[in-house]
Design brief:
The complex is a heterodimer. By secondary structure, chain A is mainly β. Chain A has helices at 132-135, 348-351, and strands at 6-13, 16-23, 30-35, 44-47, 53-60, 64-70, 78-79, 96-102, 109-114, 117-121, 129-130, 151-158, 161-167, 170-174, 182-183, 204-209, 217-221, 240-243, 251-252, 265-267, 275-277, 294-297, 305-307, 325-327, 335-338, 344-347, 353-358, 364-371. A 4-stranded antiparallel sheet of chain A has the order 3-2-1-28, with no helix packed on it. A 4-stranded antiparallel sheet of chain A has the order 4-5-6-7, with no helix packed on it. A 4-stranded antiparallel sheet of chain A has the order 8-9-10-11. In chain A, a hairpin with a 5-residue loop joins strand 25 (335-338) and strand 26. The longest helix of chain A has 4 residues, at 132-135. The radius of gyration of chain A is 19 Å and the shape is globular. By secondary structure, chain B is of the alpha+beta class. Chain B is 19% helix and 24% strand. A 5-stranded mixed sheet of chain B has the order 2-1-5-3-4, covered by helices on one side. The termini of chain B are far apart. The chains are: A mainly beta, B alpha+beta.
């Protein structure tokens, strides 16, 4: 097997990070880990720019946040020299690291944290600076924590645009390379607010885009409010959304799904019209009817179909969290999702057929894949 | 003239020894737990950031003991120290 033949998965779990590896056939994955054993990992990154580097956020509730880095494809990990930290006089203290993404330049990383703030490293994670344009935004002290905490979980770069997803803060957009940000939530509903369409404060769960569809974004928002009868009235179909103007306005594409509640949203690597979600029952955050399925749209959200071949048909009540699904970029790509019950599922042929690669991992927070 | 600070010992919890060259004990001269932490911030910054957050507070899920007494039941980080005291930072027993 040559270096170019490997499909590498980084799996962040409640008890550390794991690295799985297979040939391009994706027949059988070997597993290494846990790295940072016993400590929750909420975010991972396979940075394939140049010599690949693997990163994991090691979120130690006792001793604080660490960033782990591997330069040998996940055989070993070491702590970077420092982790993001608020300035001493800021008054905020880091609770979790929810997102690590590549920055605009080589060795630059962006990091979304709880309480919702953005940090940047220009040296591969050894030192970090707070990005004040969003971290000290006039809205920042008004954001409320969602069930998972007040987290900045999505960081998407698109040229000079930077999109951020905050739960609960909403979608924030920079059009000057990340210097300044504005709330950009027109059409994004909020279910737990008398005003169904506030300026900010939405519980955005995840945002995705594709290079081949400039200006288009997909969003999994906090849905499940069709039956609400309180102030502001019901707000159906606010959970799955699309923007065609770089996130300035959004519209629902939730019609046809069994639930508009869910966490991850993923775009096909070769077709920006193909998008995947995992609908969950809003009350329990588990699979509708105990029968898990990934749902796929092949027309940008106009209609949806159910992908469940090989998945359990009944009595299954796991959750797939916001960062726990990804897709590789091979010619016939495979989807991967991890569950809160510690299963890692692989859906070859774009999710047409599912197999369980690992059945007994700790609860899975994040899954990232790269072909390197 | 102020009395010299008493010599005390910081006992280092196992997981944290990698942040202070593997030692199990650190000698410190300090009148209070707070002063001991300030000395650690200067002399052992890698260890210190495991014990205190950015605001300078002891991390939420750590307990601090002077000998066998939790400082929560004394005067917190202002608990005074006497020569020979042993200060220990331990994870609160929680979770699964």
């Amino acid at each position: 097997m040559t270096v170019a033949d490997r499909v590498v998965l980084m799996i962040g779990t409640r008890k550390g990070a794991f690295v799985a590896e297979a040939a391009k056939s994706r027949g059988r994955f070997s597993l290494r880990g846990p790295f940072g054993p016993g400590v929750p990992v909420y975010s991972t990154l396979i940075d394939a720019r140049g010599t690949p580097r693997l990163y994991a956020s090691s979120c130690n509730p006792f001793f604080g946040m660490k960033v782990l880095r591997s330069t040998d494809m996940g055989k070993t990990f070491k702590e970077t020299k420092s982790a993001p930290a608020f300035p001493k006089d800021d008054g905020r203290a880091l609770v979790n690291i929810w997102a690590i993404e590549p920055g605009a330049r080589k060795n630059q990383l962006l990091c979304g944290v709880e309480p919702a703030s953005l940090f940047r490293s220009d040296d591969g994670g050894d030192s970090w600076q707070m990005v004040t344009g969003i971290s000290n935004h006039e809205h920042a002290r008004k954001w409320q924590p969602g069930a998972g905490g007040l987290c900045m979980h999505t960081i998407i770069r698109d040229g000079q645009r930077v999109h951020l997803g905050i739960s609960t803060g909403g979608h924030y957009l920079s059009e000057d390379g990340g210097e300044t940000f504005n709330a950009s939530n027109t059409g994004v509903g909020a279910g737990f607010n008398p005003d169904p369409y506030p300026e900010f404060g939405q519980c955005v769960h995840k945002i995705a885009r594709h290079d081949a569809a400039p200006g288009r974004l997909y969003m999994q928002n906090h849905g499940g409010w069709a039956e609400w009868t309180g102030p502001g009235g019901p707000r159906p179909d606010i959970g799955v959304l699309r923007s065609d103007d770089s996130g300035h306005t959004w519209r629902s594409i939730a019609k046809g799904l069994p639930s508009d509640f869910g966490f991850p949203i993923v775009v096909h690597p070769h077709d920006p019209d193909t998008v995947y979600v995992v609908p969950l029952e809003p009350a329990t955050r588990t699979c509708p009817g105990g029968a898990p399925a990934v749902w796929r749209s092949e027309n940008g959200g106009d209609s949806w179909s159910r992908l469940a071949r090989g998945l359990p048909k009944k009595e299954t009540y796991f959750t797939v969290l916001r960062d726990a699904m990804d897709i590789d970029d091979l010619k016939s790509p495979a989807l991967y999702f991890g569950t809160t019950t510690g299963q890692l599922w692989v859906g070859k042929d774009g999710g047409e057929k599912w197999e369980c690669a690992f059945e007994g991992l700790p609860p899975i927070h994040s899954v990232k894949v790269a072909v390197v | 003239m102020a009395a010299p600070a008493p010599s005390i010992t910081i006992h280092v919890f196992g997981q944290l020894r990698e942040y202070c060259r593997g030692v199990t004990e650190l000698p410190v001269s300090a009148h209070t737990v707070r002063a001991a932490l300030e000395q650690l911030e200067r002399d052992e910054p890698l260890l210190y950031r495991n014990l205190c957050d950015e605001t300078g507070k002891v991390r939420r899920h750590l307990n601090v003991f002077v000998n066998t007494e939790n400082v929560r039941d004394l005067a917190g980080v202002d608990t005074t120290l006497a020569a020979g005291d042993v200060v220990t930072f331990l994870p609160a027993v929680s979770g699964g």
